[in-house]
Amino acid sequence: MIERVTQIFSALSTVVIDATTLQHNVIRKNQFTIGYGTVNTWNLDTDKPPATLLTFNRTNDGLEVEPTNPGHTFLVNGKPSKGKALANGVVHTLQVQNEFFLFNVTNKPKAWLSGIKLDEWRVFEFATGNVYGPFDKLQLEFWVKEERKDPSKLIYVPQGLYTGFNVNQILGMELPAPVPQKEVLHQKIEEYRSKILKKKEAPLQQSRCPHCWSPLF
């Protein structure tokens, strides 16, 4: 009985965050799919033609991820996948075509999610170790151009995590729904300008994790 209770409370779940829509899903199955249509474990968009983008298989060695279409752009942690199982308990990023995800295999999904603010994303700069923001996606593009930053040397990270996407990837991300781009962008720029007019934004000096490059928020 005690062993059974222990198994229940220690059962692993895969938490997947859609970085475009900022929605998340906690999946307890060992094998599951993500794509468009009800044929998938997580249906990202019912308005798109049915298709399975990714197939997942959770094993004792970690999480195996494969794109359904070998011809699709498929990046794991910003690099082409080598087909190896991804370690449990570690946050990974994944891009397939124009879909972007953060995912983690954990036995405490609620606790992990509670420490993340998906409505606050910041930029980590490799060269200086500085953290800037928060910026939403529209403000991010303006800020990169205004400050003349090299997007290939910047990481876009949600508050509470130390893993994120290369800004090069994010600048090409599609917005979740059609919006009046010029009006929205103008509004976002004005919001950003009002902040820097009051006080010239200085980078937030952050200490780094002693085991990796990650900023300690």
Mind explaining what this structure looks like?
The chain is α+β, with helices and mostly antiparallel strands and 217 residues long. Helices cover 22% and strands 34% of the residues. The protein is built from five helices and 15 strands. The chain has helices at 2-9, 109-114, 137-146, 167-171, 181-198; strands at residues 13-18, 24-27, 31-36, 42-43, 51-59, 62-67, 74-76, 79-80, 92-96, 99-106, 117-125, 130-132, 154-159, 165-166, 204-205. The protein has a six-stranded antiparallel sheet. It is globular, with a radius of gyration of 19 Å. The termini are far apart. The model is unreliable at 1-9 (pLDDT under 50).
Sheet with the most strands, sense and barrel status: 6 strands, antiparallel
Query: Oligomeric status of the shown chains?
Result: single chain
Please, how many helices? 5
Q: How many strand segments?
A: 15
H and E string? HEEEEEEEEEEHEEHEEHHE
Helix/strand/pairing class, anyone?
alpha+beta
Mean of all residue-level pLDDT scores? 81
- Order of strands, main sheet, comes to 2-1-10-9-7-8
Any idea what the shape is? globular
Helix content: 10-25%
For the CA atoms, what is the radius of gyration?
A: 19 Å
Q: What are the segments in which pLDDT stays under 50 over at least 5 consecutive residues? A: 1-9
Cα distance spanning the termini: 41 Å
Proportion of beta-strand residues: 25-35%
Pick out its properties:
217 residues, single chain, alpha+beta, globular, six-stranded antiparallel beta sheet
Please summarize what this structure is.
The protein has 217 residues and is of the alpha+beta class.
